[in-house]
Write a structure and sequence with these properties.
By secondary structure, the chain is of the alpha+beta class. The protein has a 15-stranded mixed β-sheet that branches. The longest helix has 25 residues. It starts with 8 loop residues before the first strand and ends in an 11-residue tail after the last helix. The N terminus is likely disordered.
Amino acid sequence: MSSSTAPMVTASSPAWSTQAQPEALCTVRALAPEALSAEDRQRWSALESHAIEPNAYASPHFVLPALRHLDPGSRSEVVFVERQDGPTPQTLGVATLTRRTANTLLPLPHTEVYQSLHSFCGAPLIAAGHAAAVWYGLLRHIRARTPWSFALVVRNLEQDGAAHAALKQACSTLGYTLHDSPAKQRAMLLPADTGAEALKRNLRKQHAEVERCKRRIAETGELAWQIHREAIAPGVTEDFLRLEHAGWKGEEGTSLRSQPAEEAFFKDMVDGFASEGRALFTELKLGAQTIASTSNLVSGTQGFAFKVGWDPAYRKNGVGILNEAELVRHFPQVCPDLTAFDSGAEPASFIEKLWPGRRPLVTSMVLFNAPARWSLRALGWVREQRARRAAAAAAPQQVEAKPEA
């Protein structure tokens, strides 16, 4: 795998044909991120619009700013799987791969599909009808270019989704072991769960409290909700960064504004999505003041929630939840083109009450050989022993009663 500090173009293997597409000759090109041409970036972006599994976090508008600002100097490459059946190659898949040393997932060197600190979904971008061939090409490329790599790791992959199913097929063809972690449930917003009546169903008894909070705030001024999709004015981005930095995130240094590199990444990333009308912000405003804001991304026909912010002065009125509730209420009118909205949230997040849909996500590991399988098995044993010791330490201790004198 080429280093990002040494731009190069490589072909991992000669062209091959697949049983599903016997007429299609496929090749792999791997480039350092800074070596991408304008045409490469355009093909990457074009593939995103019709990928079998939408993923804003695999978009060039997300990955390239993340590599530039959040992971400079990382050992990453952008891999194109293409079909050479004419004067212009057809892009079948694009994945950003990065080298990893031993870590808590696997105590051996391996390759991962790149995810930044702020990435919440891991599927590469793959064209319909070519999913297995794309995975086949990526796995062949990794084995040829990095024989020291014991596995491929894909985090946050939808269990039994189109990309995951194709990965299973490719592993079966090549004789590799596919290991999936236990699935975690990600909150999703589906069109059937949106609108005023659906909001009542979603919130149940809490709906009345949400409405009371709205009335309390509205008593102090004009309360309005806005959505921005076509163009994102600088003031909208600034208000979001200000609110996301307010309160505990700023105090703990976890907000985007806390680190210059993260703020630069966010602005660069939003500019890229906004240039194609695919950045989406929602705002709750009290008069001219924005008191809650969310930043979101659109990829294909799916939305992806990114970050939220609210004014801590209105915390007791739950303005962050009010802002999210208004998106559910107005979704049929403002997002009729979207078939789903991924929350990006961890299990037990407050958003689960508002967004009742669920998406099972796993970390998939393609184990290339016996040492990888043994290593993962040993790591599982160590974790099991630690869990048992922790459980034993937390259990009430039995105290033997002494006989009375």
